[in-house]
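Internal ticket - ligand job 576, arginine:
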Amino acid sequence: MTVPSLASSLSDSVTVAAASLGLPDLAPQVRRSEYADFQADGTLAAARALRRQPRELAAELVAALPAGGPVASARVAGPGFVNLHLTDAALLAQAAARLDDPRLGVGMPEAGVTTVIDYSQPNIAKEMHVGHLRSTIIGDALVRILEHLGGKVVRRNHIGDWGTQFGMLIQHRFEQPGPSAADDSATLRQLATLYRRARTAFDTDPAFAERARQRVVALQSGDPATLAAWRDIVAESTRYFTEIYRQLDVRLSDADAVGESAYNRELPQVAEELERAGVAVVSDGALCVFFDDIHGPDGRPTPLIVRKSDGGFGYAATDLAALRQRVAQLRADRLLYVVDARQALHFRMVFDTARRAGWLPSAVSAVHVAFGTVLGPDGRPFKTRAGDTVRLADLLTEAVDRARGVVAAKNPDLTGAALDERARQVGIGAVKYADLATGRARAYAYDPDRMLALTGNTGVYLQYAHARIRSILARADSGDAVVDTDAVLEPAERALVLDLDGFADTLTEVLAGHEPHRLCGYLYRLAQTFTAFYEQCPVLRADVRQRGNRLALCRLTGDTLRTGLHLLGIEAPEQL
Ligand code: ARG
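stdout (structure tokens):
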């Protein structure tokens, strides 16, 4: 059984104490404090509600706390907080319990909960760019965390594989056949070139534009040759995306790819139901949903367009069909969409429409997990010198190349395939960590020098901290890490036990706000606390009792760092 964190056991004790005072509604917030081990808040709000003096109420609470428990001392502080100091024995008992728990105190709060998560979502015949990087990495971390917490996760890679642009692409391919799909490697680059050429022809040659429009009609009506060409293009892009996912080590497979086209057959029905229910109305020939609180800059209402005036369906209709299916067939309790913050309005409208249509019952939550833009190293929009979008594939190659330099400098004996593998772990880890460590709503500058720094809040720093602990442990016997609960703790040891104890609660917080950066911040603090501990407390040279305790703390820290990094999708090699 997982042992609860110190913070949560304390909050139980405080709740019991409050109930004994006849204050069952006092909801204590027990959290780490700068001035004590923990601090219990909640008395302020309770005092206000009861029209009592907060310090007085806090003093009663302190008096009601059970004696002889883990609390060494409880004191009223400031306007009416309660500062709690724990006994060394309580901290050591907690460390001992953790040592026997492979889950490091993390429970299964997500058991029985199904989450459908929409992420990555690249577009066929286009390059994946840094926007898709964010969605892929954040989505992958959330998937890993949800699964670790016992949840059932259905991944949906909502690939952009449909739309009028395929008319010009296919038409151009028919008119100027290039190398066939069979010769791989450079195909996506060729596809992207094809896309640009087709676009230019479409914009400059009215006759071609007309033929492309005819081709859209042929595609929509299922003309076999046109469909075959479309399938070829989709297959080529998909192979390329799969290659990137493999390089990134994210858990997205072909089975998770359910592109926009998969919902085509349901679109007419979606429109019909919305219209019948009175949720959507025809306006200027288009089928629209209006919202009381959504207006354009001109003050006129901005609708969600379900069906365009030419009868075609677009992005919104597809998302509505997908949402309906995710709730009705996949039985989602929670829907997550990891998509660029610029699509906030779209998702607000889609969710609201679905609620009104009855497709999204109130028991099911729908969240747009929005993220900010990735900027260039100079803080300006991220473009190549020629002004093109930066290819994700190039960025990853560059990161791994630079990481090879960092690894080789630290470890000159490493060569060949082993060096390549380490460079991949470090380079990809650096890219992922730099992305995840930024609060997701914020924009950040993509800076390969900074993300590969050995010090500071980087993936490499954490991988290095983990490897250092592994090497300390390798110099001792595995049976040497034993906790002696009668020992007296140094301040640096207490700090480390308290930080280790926060792992499970951190994951709960990450999930509550869908914010992987909280896990990054936690791991970074843990590594720093460990460094301070290691500087102040000799481990291998300590006397036998202290050595056992300190080795136990090393092992717990190493395991927590490794598990945490894995939950972020980052590997933790034994050596760096
Ligand atoms: N393919 C779109 C893009 O690249 C993102 C799709 C987001 N997901 C969704 N269900 N709308 O911008």
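Auto-summary: The CA atoms of residues 276 and 357 lie 10 Å apart. Residues 118, 121, 123, 158, 160, 319, 337, 339 surround arginine (CB under 6 Å).
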